[in-house]
């Protein structure tokens, strides 16, 4: 399609957008009395309007039923979390029994490492991308120290090539093959938080498995953003947060995928709690642990219903629309944003460059030359919500649920003004 950087063209794309009505299903912050252009769905998604109904229902049941709500609430609390597994399984390309919702992301990655990082004298190394999300780095280091291993020896980081802003799949696969039979685990971010790169999860998983390692993915920036086929890719495990593209609210519950081949394995190591025991005998309060036959076996505590309720509300929207349509719009919207950026760049004599490779989801990371921070501040003051990453990067993630083509056009105009004003 031949794009144009005009309001009329942007509006014509909106007119053809089959998801355009979904904009009205979200709450927007306002700046200077106007709804913002929201680019930080990769950090905290907007609040879907149906969330308050789901939360109010729990509050009402709690007020009127108190403890009886566990079994007699409209959606009983004791198995409330189970309602999320089927819709989430569609989002991540898994079987329903392979998915559960519990805790928060870093907690779940630790729990997954308990089960799937079982170092031996020979096979103990972990491969990740260089500059992985800091929480993941702290997790690796602390897990390794917990096992009495030296993080400097055991962590192998795949580096970008000199002068390049992205990782090459061939370099990841080569590193996996080189570490070979010393490799215990590959655990990387499926979409990198900084440059927005989508890793070739299928190829990397295959390389890890070929070398006898476990392969897991941190899908914080991937879930609800790109197509995932975790089961078909033979991924061992994955975890994600729900507050970014999944729009479930700040700090909210995390999802977990565990390949079905591990679900009935008696030898699997796992930290256990009462919500992982079989439902029909859970309240007999027996001393022995009888695991659920699905990923719920990894559950520890009774679910935080007030936090799971907004996630269920948001999943209702994903059920209605489906990932296919979201991804179709995402591709067009992000391409249009890229076009607008390129047009603005021509007009302001090359003030920035896009560092996100072609393998991408929603996010474009833009390296601002010169007075980047002043441009960022200008955008924020003028109703464009984006985020700043050192040393000079703004990340723009136009989420297809609530961002429009017209937003992209107006963003370009504000950016141009901001650069010319400096
Ligand atoms: C890639 C990635 N991993 C891990 C985390 C940590 O998530 P949490 O604070 O929910 O544990 C984040 C948070 O933004 C993230 O982006």
UniProtKB/TrEMBL annotation:
Family, as annotated: Belongs to the kynureninase family.
The keyword Ribonucleoprotein appears for this protein: no
Modified residues (N6-(pyridoxal phosphate)lysine): 244
NCBIfam families, sorted: kynureninase
GO BP of this protein: anthranilate metabolic process; L-kynurenine catabolic process; L-tryptophan catabolic process to kynurenine; NAD+ biosynthetic process; quinolinate biosynthetic process
Keywords assigned: Hydrolase, Pyridine nucleotide biosynthesis, Pyridoxal phosphate
The protein's Enzyme Commission number: 3.7.1.3
Gene assigned in the entry: kynU
Protein name: Kynureninase
């Amino acid at each position: 399609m031949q794009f144009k950087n005009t309001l009329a063209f942007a509006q014509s794309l909106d007119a053809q957008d089959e998801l355009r009505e979904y904009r009205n299903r979200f709450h927007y912050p306002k700046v200077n009395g106007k709804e913002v252009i929201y680019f930080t769905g990769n950090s905290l998604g907007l609040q879907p309007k149906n969330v308050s109904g789901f939360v109010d229902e729990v509050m009402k049941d709690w007020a009127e039923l108190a403890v009886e709500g566990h079994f007699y609430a409209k959606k009983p609390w004791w198995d409330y979390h189970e309602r999320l597994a089927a819709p989430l399984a569609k989002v991540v390309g898994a079987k329903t029994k392979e998915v559960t919702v519990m805790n928060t992301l870093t907690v779940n990655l630790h729990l997954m490492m308990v089960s799937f990082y079982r170092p031996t004298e020979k096979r103990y190394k972990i491969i990740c991308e260089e500059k992985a999300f800091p929480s993941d780095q702290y997790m690796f280091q602390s897990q390794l120290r917990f096992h009495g291993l030296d993080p400097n020896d055991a962590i192998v980081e795949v580096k970008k090539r000199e002068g390049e802003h992205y990782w090459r799949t061939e370099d990841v696969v080569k590193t996996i093959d080189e570490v070979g039979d010393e490799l215990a685990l590959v655990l990387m971010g499926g979409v990198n938080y900084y440059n927005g790169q989508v890793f070739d999860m299928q190829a990397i998983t295959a390389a890890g498995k070929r070398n006898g390692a476990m392969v897991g993915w941190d899908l914080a920036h991937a879930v609800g953003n790109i197509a995932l086929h975790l089961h078909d890719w033979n991924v061992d495990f994955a975890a994600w947060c729900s507050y970014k593209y999944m729009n479930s609210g700040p700090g909210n519950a995390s999802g977990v995928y565990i390949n079905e081949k591990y679900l009935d394995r008696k030898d699997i190591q796992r930290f256990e709690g009462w919500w992982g025991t079989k439902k029909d005998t859970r309240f007999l309060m027996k001393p022995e642990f009888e695991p659920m036959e699905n990923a719920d076996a990894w559950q520890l505590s009774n679910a935080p219903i007030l936090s799971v309720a907004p996630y269920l509300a948001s999943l209702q929207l994903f059920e209605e629309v489906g990932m296919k349509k979201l991804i179709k719009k995402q591709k067009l919207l992000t391409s249009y944003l890229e076009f607008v950026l390129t047009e603005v760049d021509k007009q302001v004599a090359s003030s920035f460059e896009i560092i996100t490779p072609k393998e991408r989801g929603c996010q474009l990371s833009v390296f601002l030359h010169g007075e980047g921070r002043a441009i960022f501040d200008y955008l924020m003051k003028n109703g464009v919500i984006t985020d700043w990453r050192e040393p000079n990067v703004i990340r723009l993630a136009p989420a297809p649920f609530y961002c429009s083509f017209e937003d992209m056009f107006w963003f370009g105009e504000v950016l141009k003004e901001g650069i010319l004003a400096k």
